[in-house]
Amino acid sequence: MTGPPGIFISLHGKYYKLTGNEPFQQSVNLKVDQLLHWDLFMEFLRRKYRNSLTEKNYLKKVNTTNYELFLSQLSKTKQLLDLNNKRKVLKDQVLLESRGSVYKTKNEINLIDDYHALVEQLNISKIKPGFNKAIYLERFLDIVKLQCTIQNLPFPAILTKGNILKVSPTVSGYEAYIGRTLICYNSHKIHAFLDHQKTIWKGEYPFVQVADAAIYSYVEKNSPFENKERLNILQEWIDIQNGRPRYLTNIKIKSSSPKSKRKPAQSSRYLYWVYPLTYLTQLERALKKALLISSEASLKSVFKEEIGIRGKKIEWKGSLKQLMFLMHLIFLQKPHFKNTPLHLVTFNLFNSTKKSYTSKGLSTILSTVIKDAKSKDTLSNKLEVISALVNELHLPKAFK
């Protein structure tokens, strides 16, 4: 954007009143007003001098007499009706240019790239039941608007393809931004993307644990189309980080070539179940009898570790205190399992039919349950149900 000459800037400053509360706002508003009035003033000079105005002499016409005449005529014309729209367009341009040069590495989050990738993917994919394309895009744009507000950038001007809207890893809920990006991310670059995100992660818990418990769940629940291939790759990366390498067939998200047949998973290991399988069967039967899970629920499908595939989370019908007390007792009152906090393990395995919750919320509930169990002589009726249920299992007293 070409700016007005210095002689006009000085002239404009004599008549301009600062607007905006912050220095940055004042600077932007001043720049916008200069550009707006410069364009209009040049139109005024062309009309006044017609063919006699040239590149060599036009600066001589930029003087106080002409500018005051221009302002007086401007206030009497219909041009004022268009000024606000022109000002908005110019302000968006100034805001974008005020950032200077913005660069993004290949593995950083860019919400503008994510938006265009999402639009493209929605146009070629079958939308899952329960999702609405228009509403989904609108909610995504709400996130873009939020970041524009935080970073003082114009919306919707920022949406132009090629622009960059990065997200700081220190922002609240950054794991959701990662999940949002993964929904449409180039499948062949997911490993590199996750490697980079791991190095810049600023969260409270180790990134691999968050990827396993929260990011996987986010993609699984929030993808508006089937996303098994990307989930497979995400699970593969998690397993490699945990020392359990997996081998997947070549993956293509969309291809006109015939789909290759996948070999069924051969693993019979159980990721979060540490006792003989017979105890898991007994636990499932006891929970169904106590009406804490549905009669169709399968603990095996959730606890079983397969290649990139997880069973649907168990819908927990009891209270969250009961759920955390159950996990507390099953894992022999240990706060972690394989270096994963117990509340993240729970978050990965269960949903509640009564209320939504976060992994952090489960951590708070677990602390409360442990404190109550230690400080009170008798348990509440609900926790007593859980205690009796686990006691009847006669679980081994130790596990690795």
Determine the N-to-C terminus distance: 66 Å
Order of helices and strands: HHHHHHHHHHHHEHEEHEHH
- Tell me the number of strands: 4
The low-confidence parts are 245-269, 305-310
What structural category arises from helix and sheet content? mainly alpha
Strand content: under 5%
Order of neighbouring strands in the sheet with most strands: 1-4
Fraction of residues in helices? 40-55%
**Mean model confidence by pLDDT:** 78
Q: What about the largest sheet?
A: 2 strands, parallel
How many H/I helices?
16
| Assembly category | single chain
Tell me the Rg in angstroms: 31 Å
Categorize the overall geometry: elongated
Domain module count? 3
Describe what you observe in this structure:
The chain has 16 helices and four strands. It is mainly α and 400 residues long. The longest helix has 27 residues, at 23-49. A two-stranded parallel ribbon has the order 1-4. A two-stranded antiparallel ribbon has the order 2-3. The chain has three domains: 6-97, no CATH class; 111-241, no CATH class; 277-393, no CATH class.
Main attributes of the structure:
16 helices, two-stranded antiparallel ribbon, 400 residues, mainly alpha, two-stranded parallel ribbon, 4 strands, 3 domains
